Amino acid sequence: MKIATCKAPVNIAVIKYWGKRDENLILPINDSISATLSLDHMCAKTTIVSSPDLTETRFWLNGELQSTGNKRFQKCLEEIKKRAKPDVECLNWHLNIVSENNFPTAAGLASSAAGYACLVYTLAQIYEVDGNISSVGRMGSGSACRSFFGGWVRWLKGEKNDGSDSLAIQVAPENHWPEMRVLVLVVSDHKKAYSSTSGMKTSVETSELLKYRAENIVPRRVEEMVQAIQNKDFPTFAKLTMQDSNQFHSSCLDTYPPCFYLNDTSRVIIELIHAYNEFREETKVAYTFDAGPNACLYLLEKDVAEVIEMINYVFPSEPIAMSSYFKGKAVPYTTIDEKLMYMLINFRQPEGKLKYIIYTEVGSGPLVLKEAEDHLVAENGEPKI
Amino acid sequence: MKIATCKAPVNIAVIKYWGKRDENLILPINDSISATLSLDHMCAKTTIVSSPDLTETRFWLNGELQSTGNKRFQKCLEEIKKRAKPDVECLNWHLNIVSENNFPTAAGLASSAAGYACLVYTLAQIYEVDGNISSVGRMGSGSACRSFFGGWVRWLKGEKNDGSDSLAIQVAPENHWPEMRVLVLVVSDHKKAYSSTSGMKTSVETSELLKYRAENIVPRRVEEMVQAIQNKDFPTFAKLTMQDSNQFHSSCLDTYPPCFYLNDTSRVIIELIHAYNEFREETKVAYTFDAGPNACLYLLEKDVAEVIEMINYVFPSEPIAMSSYFKGKAVPYTTIDEKLMYMLINFRQPEGKLKYIIYTEVGSGPLVLKEAEDHLVAENGEPKI
């Protein structure tokens, strides 16, 4: 019997991936860039047991047995086995795969990226695979490929039809910009989410603006973003991040029929951040939104206390949610400037527009966990209850 | 003393105007197309008195005395005078100008287009100006130039720097497509509206997608729209209308900082119309949104009853608003199909998301009113109270 347990991080794109040029291999129409978030506050965790005694391969996600017939799951398994050391004895053994996300999947926080990265990374331990395996994770969920590295990561769209050059590389390591912080604002929404897979497909088929963006705007923007990150140039980084988030949602609106991911609360957050940056006469915070209403704010440590006070004032929590409103790193306190408070009056929202807030930072890539207590399976190789 | 009273209509664009190439002359970056709405339900009305006894020019709008220093107002006055018959004796007399909109300006329904068209059209009566004066209206408010004709109207962007070829022409007269109907859904919104003048300016300065749209997409779409209108091809007309509305809002979102005009209620309307067209397996209704959350629906007379029932079901009015919820033409009734009702359940909204609904149709251009009782001034030339 062989066992491996790993953790893999969430990543939040600052130059967005939206649109595939190959649906099957999951090859994107443009490069994208993301920050990898700390494993301490949000991550996927997977334990895989391989044993000659198992009679079938089973997969549990958050405690529920899943079908292993899923095409993307099968593809990842198949691809990682192709790269296995030829003499690995367990290649034909069945597997027990047990996965968990330590954040609510319902929150619409790119759980599939961390999940597929973790699955593939853990499989790579079992089959003793070396090298850049991000392209294998890509076949599970496109953006998963960016979760194979810590720090700042670029997914190269690649040129080849077989997808072998569509993989992630590190732009800068996790300790490169130590002041960088991230606030995830989880927005209340009663609306059923659009699937990003089908939204993306419809966008590619119908939006001329998306095509123009991918071919003519993103290539230049990616280079500017790499420079901004390498130079730790926050104002440029922030402006590009906000512009690219808006342009991605703009392409969604140009899709026919249109897909909407932002709601009225998202809109208030966007307007609030612009008003705050203008008030401070400096770009201090950047927002970005994926395929859902939740905001991810990038900002520097020195500005966290004031921004958190501002968010608390504009988005009062429901009394019942108070104790669990903040998750992640310890939240600093400050008192809010009177002039700032005055500016914020018009932004103030009713209670409960945000579900909770996660305060986190840029972190490392996937980790192998060696302690027995870390395994998600009991000694018999079955999931712990 | 000379007196003239006119009415001018509202127009609703189906190919949108967004972006000026000349701020001063109000020259657009692309052609646009609109339908002129019936004067019976929404219009501006203006009375102008010219007399050698007046010692100054005054202007009342909806009962309030306005400054006449407004640059656009002055420009329209100046330009129309340039075109006056040289022997018109009143050219140097002062004016009393009295204007009213017969629909709430607060509703965000392009009141400035009807207002400036009416002002210029009435001035043209006073100064005995002939010919296409839409380019004069354009200098007051760009889209006003489309309110000088009935039916279906195209505003040619023109090529000249002096703007002399940037004017409106009729694509089809008001009786061309007699089955066409319009429902204006006035959406409740507590948000202060963005000015469209400044939003448009920021879009031109910052949105690369807007530039691409104006240069590469709209020219083709305008020709397709003219064909669809001339052929009374509703499905093509409707699809182009929805796509162009979405692309205009898409450009607003690509603006930096972004401008939002749609709110969550607008979003429900968009999704509802797509779901309804899909349910009926035919494009039966088109939505379009200007620089605000209100929807304008284009549909054929035969479908009005069912669509109104659907809207009533999805957007229940507040009990207090019931008696005045529908304005305009008499609303037909029907009972709603059970399968349709079932499909609509998930769309149902709380009471009061719509303020009211105007049911109207395509109508004529401006009219001169000859009856004494139509004048907005009393016999002494001062506004009636």
UniProtKB/TrEMBL annotation, chains A, B:
Molecular function in Gene Ontology: ATP binding; diphosphomevalonate decarboxylase activity
Calcium as UniProt keyword: no
Class in the EC hierarchy, top level: lyase
GO term, biological process aspect, one: isopentenyl diphosphate biosynthetic process, mevalonate pathway
Keywords: ATP-binding, Cholesterol biosynthesis, Cholesterol metabolism, Lipid biosynthesis, Lipid metabolism, Lyase, Nucleotide-binding, Steroid biosynthesis, Steroid metabolism, Sterol biosynthesis, Sterol metabolism
Listed transmembrane segments: none
Record EC number: 4.1.1.33
Residues covered by the Diphosphomevalonate decarboxylase-like N-terminal domain: 8-168
This protein's pathway: Steroid biosynthesis; cholesterol biosynthesis
InterPro entries attached to this UniProt entry: GHMP_kinase_C_sf, Mev_decarb, Mev_diP_decarb, MVD-like_N, Mvd1_C, Ribosomal_Su5_D2-typ_SF, Ribsml_uS5_D2-typ_fold_subgr
Keyword Lipid biosynthesis carried by entry: yes
Enzymatic reactions: (R)-5-diphosphomevalonate + ATP = isopentenyl diphosphate + ADP + phosphate + CO2
Domain Mvd1 C-terminal: 182-368
Family: Belongs to the diphosphomevalonate decarboxylase family.
Function: Catalyzes the ATP dependent decarboxylation of (R)-5-diphosphomevalonate to form isopentenyl diphosphate (IPP). Functions in the mevalonate (MVA) pathway leading to isopentenyl diphosphate (IPP), a key precursor for the biosynthesis of isoprenoids and sterol synthesis.
Name of this protein: Diphosphomevalonate decarboxylase
